[in-house]
Amino acid sequence: MASTQDALYRRIDLDLSWSEHELPERERTKHVHRLHPYLGKFIPQLVQALLERHVPNGGRVLDPFAGSGTTLVQALESGHDATGSDVAPFNCLLMRVKTREYNPFVLESELRDALARLDRFELVRPSGSVSPFVRDWYAPQAAAELLFFRSLVEDYEHADVLRVVLARAARSARRTTHFDLDFPRTPQKAPYWCHKHRRECRPVGEARRFLRRYALDTLTRVKEFARLRARGHAAVVLHGDARELDFGGRFDGVVTSPPYPGLIDYHEQHRYAYELLGLEEYRELELGKGSSRAALRAYVEGVADVFANVRRALRPGAPVVIVINDRRELYPEILERSGLELEERYRRHVNRRTGRRAGEFFEDVLVARA
Length: 370
Ligand SMILES: C[S@@+](CC[C@H](N)C(=O)[O-])C[C@H]1O[C@@H](n2cnc3c(N)ncnc32)[C@H](O)[C@@H]1O
Prior knowledge:
- By secondary structure, the chain is α/β, with parallel strands linked by helices.
- The protein has helices at about 5-10, 25-30, 45-55, 70-75, 90-100, 105-120, 130-135, 140-155, 160-170, 210-230, 270-275, 295-310, 330-340; strands spanning about 60-65, 80-85, 190-195, 200, 235-240, 255, 320-325, 340-350, 360-370.
- Strand 3 (about 190-195) and strand 4 (about 200) form a beta hairpin.
- The structure holds S-adenosylmethionine (SAM).
């Protein structure tokens, strides 16, 4: 006979299970949420609902596995201050760009100035030394344009915004097939039969049009978010290992989605960004690599250490809301080891969260207390 606990695990929360029709892609990727692709994020509407349900009005929110910053952005929209940490430097860059406040006139004039300089750029070959990665993954014209844009970045106050535009364009300008943009293994240098478009396609030869399109799109999205965010609230982004970071002060609630063993390599998915932006990698500190027995043990201990560290930064009784598809049932032990008490657990139906699954997929929302 199923225990009460099992019944609790299986309860599907229909209020959090949106269909494609109820929540189309353009809503799920509204304003700054789409500044750059990121596999494995949760959707803003889920975060918004969880904040409303579990975190006191205006309370300070923490996300130790903040990724692309969905929790931080939604916290700002819902009138909370928020802190997010991540071990991957590109994710921190992306979060800072999404959450800071801008003077829209300065931002616009800088982006337009960079685009005007790009328009005047006529070199066909990249100047200076080119890394093996760039030589392999980009056509000569695309490499030249990306490297030229990179050479401009430091000239601007909002250099980080230009870095994100550069990374997004570098992703689109790689020599890959149209159907394998997430984790391409080898460069596609010749025309190929494209399953997606059902015709012969050619790998991309230039980057300029992506740089232009994404610079303008970024501007629109940043302005849109500026109109929506609550006044007087800010986000802090911390780079580091959440097992050891000092999160700074006391928090009223956590909304987070930890990595899961063997699912997504969070450094590798943005490899081009690390290569082009010269960012340092911290792969050895990333939790959730591999799914061997030893890897699962390391995962349980690592995530438990994160939540134990988080617990020390919470007000007594603060909610810790964890979104996870725990098919290996690792979380009861993780919570116990970290000193958190599970209070509630419900399940939601997910609409293609990672972009690769077309079929049925569920995830759990665990609500624990410090
Ligand atoms: C499932 S993703 C979070 C996605 C996020 N909810 C969003 O919507 O963008 C998990 C994140 O945990 C980060 N991570 C992995 N190990 C970490 C560690 N030791 N300390 C901090 N962050 C870590 C990964 O880099 C990844 O960005």
